[in-house]
Amino acid sequence: MDIVKLAGVDAVKLVMMIVQAARMVRHNKKTCQQLVHHVQIVGDLLEKLQTPEMMQHSEIRNGLNELEEILREAYMLVMSCQNNNYVYHLFTGKKKADQFRALQNRIDSCLQVFPLISHIGTSDRLDKILEIIRHPHSQAERELPGLFTGGPSCDTRTEVSGEVKICSVQCAESFKFNLSQLADATNNFSGENKIGEGIFGCVYKGQLHDRVVVAVKRCSELRSAQDLEFQNEICFLTKLEHTSIVKLLGACMQGRERILVYEYMPNGSLNAFISGAMDWPTRSQIIKGIAEGLHYLHKHSGLHIIHGDLKPSNILLDINMKPKISDFGLARTYNPAVDQEFTDRIVGSMGFIAPECRERRLFSVKSDVYGFRSLLLEVISGQRCFSLAKGKYGDDHGVLNKRVWYLWRAGRLIKFANLLPGDESERMEILRCIHLALLCVEENPEHRPTMQEVVHMLSCQNVVLPKPQCPAYLWTEMARAHS
């Protein structure tokens, strides 16, 4: 079976033809888009599973043969859409749409089986990681740094087992750092050089031999969760390039050490400036920069990434107070053809977790929109969103949600800001940002704007904003108050 040439056409051309067919069947656009996405998944599966070891198993061979047959049928269907005129499509559109849906269902059935196969390879990698952790001086450990050797560019592959993402990483020599280099750069990780601390470990300011100043994040205790976050960070940040995303300069994976090296941000995290003396132009710059970075992650990075843990400590500020999104340890990819996906665990921080994720284990790009609203309210008000978030009933609404909603209803929204606007234009921009935050915090994720819409609303002051509804979690609280 030749996965490069399938039925006389290469995979890229096949996908482009299916896209063209999707345009012809306009009333069934979503089904056709899902088919395009799943054809791409099938192509990746064929490439990854078609190894001599895998092909020894008859069940895998049979499954791949079935997938190949489905792709051949998809190719023939696309050709039939291309090789006929408009009148023909006008009368046969419904029949073609039904045929596309049938192919979609057959692909769905096959893809439900293949995660089990992927799980086998993932389990093998997990076993190796655990073996290294249990035996620090084993031969496997001495071979582990070999993951960072390779060609001139980074090669990252992500496999999914349940909710665990494992990235096998091969990077250029220029990406590698050794432990002695980083110890020298940070004065042996001295307390004087420590500039931050989180769940993963401590962050130190360091200076390399070429006088480049860097931020060095060192894992404090190697557990499977930290190792997976380490791999996740490398997997995503080596592929991202945006002015609002922090740059990863390199990594060290030596023995039990897991260390990441980033560009240094002189002003640290947004956490230190929330309640500080920032004028509105600076706050506005931070808000717009975060929005643009999220929009890039969701739509323009090519990876379809949900950050999953937006909060002030994960927003870094450069020397000009421009924001950069950091900490991708809990980030995940999403399927753009699906509105929401299920997760078996809640990730995020108090006051920033969307209700659908907290209550129904569903996540989407709208989960990040909810987190963005929390940042937006904190930057505008200079107050912590989660300081009173865990109330009598354990609700995660956040005190700011409640306050901004009651100020909105009372017509006194400007009192929410912790600074006086310089002129009328600043006043209107502040009110608009608070209004936008209320849209981002709505209970139903379908009613929240996308980050693309948020960027547009922030940059175009003449765009009319819809009327907001009651913020998430407050319906339940108000119902309890009246019961």
Automatic annotation (TrEMBL):
<keyword id="KW-0732">Signal</keyword>
<keyword id="KW-0547">Nucleotide-binding</keyword>
<keyword id="KW-1133">Transmembrane helix</keyword>
<keyword id="KW-0472">Membrane</keyword>
<keyword id="KW-0675">Receptor</keyword>
<feature type="binding site">
    <location>
        <position position="217"/>
    </location>
    <ligand>
        <name>ATP</name>
    </ligand>
</feature>
<dbReference type="GO" id="GO:0002229">
    <property type="term" value="P:defense response to oomycetes"/>
</dbReference>
<dbReference type="InterPro" id="IPR059179">
    <property type="entry name" value="MLKL-like_MCAfunc"/>
</dbReference>
<keyword id="KW-0325">Glycoprotein</keyword>
<comment type="similarity">
    <text>In the N-terminal section; belongs to the leguminous lectin family.</text>
</comment>
<dbReference type="InterPro" id="IPR008271">
    <property type="entry name" value="Ser/Thr_kinase_AS"/>
</dbReference>
<dbReference type="GO" id="GO:0005524">
    <property type="term" value="F:ATP binding"/>
</dbReference>
<dbReference type="Pfam" id="PF00069">
    <property type="entry name" value="Pkinase"/>
</dbReference>
<keyword id="KW-0067">ATP-binding</keyword>
<comment type="similarity">
    <text>Belongs to the protein kinase superfamily.</text>
</comment>
<feature type="domain" description="Protein kinase">
    <location>
        <begin position="189"/>
        <end position="465"/>
    </location>
</feature>
<dbReference type="InterPro" id="IPR036537">
    <property type="entry name" value="Adaptor_Cbl_N_dom_sf"/>
</dbReference>
<dbReference type="InterPro" id="IPR011009">
    <property type="entry name" value="Kinase-like_dom_sf"/>
</dbReference>
<dbReference type="GO" id="GO:0005886">
    <property type="term" value="C:plasma membrane"/>
</dbReference>
<keyword id="KW-0812">Transmembrane</keyword>
<keyword id="KW-0808">Transferase</keyword>
<dbReference type="GO" id="GO:0007166">
    <property type="term" value="P:cell surface receptor signaling pathway"/>
</dbReference>
<keyword id="KW-0723">Serine/threonine-protein kinase</keyword>
<dbReference type="InterPro" id="IPR017441">
    <property type="entry name" value="Protein_kinase_ATP_BS"/>
</dbReference>
<dbReference type="GO" id="GO:0004674">
    <property type="term" value="F:protein serine/threonine kinase activity"/>
</dbReference>
<dbReference type="InterPro" id="IPR000719">
    <property type="entry name" value="Prot_kinase_dom"/>
</dbReference>
<dbReference type="Pfam" id="PF19584">
    <property type="entry name" value="MCAfunc"/>
</dbReference>
<keyword id="KW-0418">Kinase</keyword>
<keyword id="KW-1003">Cell membrane</keyword>
<dbReference type="InterPro" id="IPR045766">
    <property type="entry name" value="MCAfunc"/>
</dbReference>
<protein>
    <recommendedName>
        <fullName>Protein kinase domain-containing protein</fullName>
    </recommendedName>
</protein>
